[in-house]
């Protein structure tokens, strides 16, 4: 969506809640003394540049880790951040940019990650404070992804790393999605941006082993839920509702 919006002439600002400090990486991936948060900051900036983002900001919170882990209790963990304080930080950026559209995660963070859920809560509240007119919840089309994964599992060698996904808690059913955006012309750019996140998506991942045609089918659509949309709404742009 970043490359698509930037390509249409919109100013795109990426705001990141944390720096991914407590993620997991393969042994030996980091150089001696290298900090994972610093590496992931560099990866984020590189990916944003590839996609054409005009500005990148970090809210200053710490990665909470997965749900139910001790890292959730860190005093700066984003999942336990004060809602009003965190929303105020984001609202300042929205106001500076006079943002017309804000995208956040869906209500369960796509697959339940506590920081993604935090982005949903903080984003909606920040939009209210800054009076940002349109909020869209980024999600994944559960029905589309389920079919894709089933086909890929049969087509790729055992050496490819398989995603560990519980489809019943993953994404959103197609019937609840209000906006589907065709970004197939940007999948080469998207693939390069994905590869820039090497600490999260290694060269042996199933995604990066896909041939171009399969990758285009898998990642050539992006799905959103428009806040307060009329039931049955089905749009094809994040900007078509602006007056």
How would you portray this structure in words?
The structure is a single chain. 39% of the residues lie in helices and 12% in strands. By secondary structure, the chain is an alpha/beta fold. The chain has a single domain (2-226), classed as LmbE-like (Rossmann fold, 3-Layer(aba) Sandwich), CATH 3.40.50. α2 (36-51) links the parallel β1 (13-16) and β2. The two termini are 21 Å apart.
Q: Report strand %.
A: 5-15%
- Overall mean confidence score, pLDDT: 91
Structural class, please?
alpha/beta
Give the CATH H-level superfamily.
LmbE-like
Globally, the shape reads globular
Number of domains: 1
How many β strands by DSSP? 6
- H/E element order: HEHEHEHHEHEHHHE
**Low-confidence stretches at least 5 residues in length (pLDDT < 50)?**
none
Cα-to-Cα separation, first versus last residue: 21 Å
CATH topology: Rossmann fold
Report the helical percentage. Answer: 25-40%
Q: Enumerate how many helices there are, as a single number.
A: 9
Strand order of the largest sheet: 3-4-6-5
Largest sheet: 4 strands, mixed
Q: Supply Rg.
A: 18 Å
CATH architecture: 3-Layer(aba) Sandwich
Any descriptors?
243 residues; alpha/beta; Rossmann fold; 4-stranded mixed β-sheet; two-stranded parallel ribbon; globular
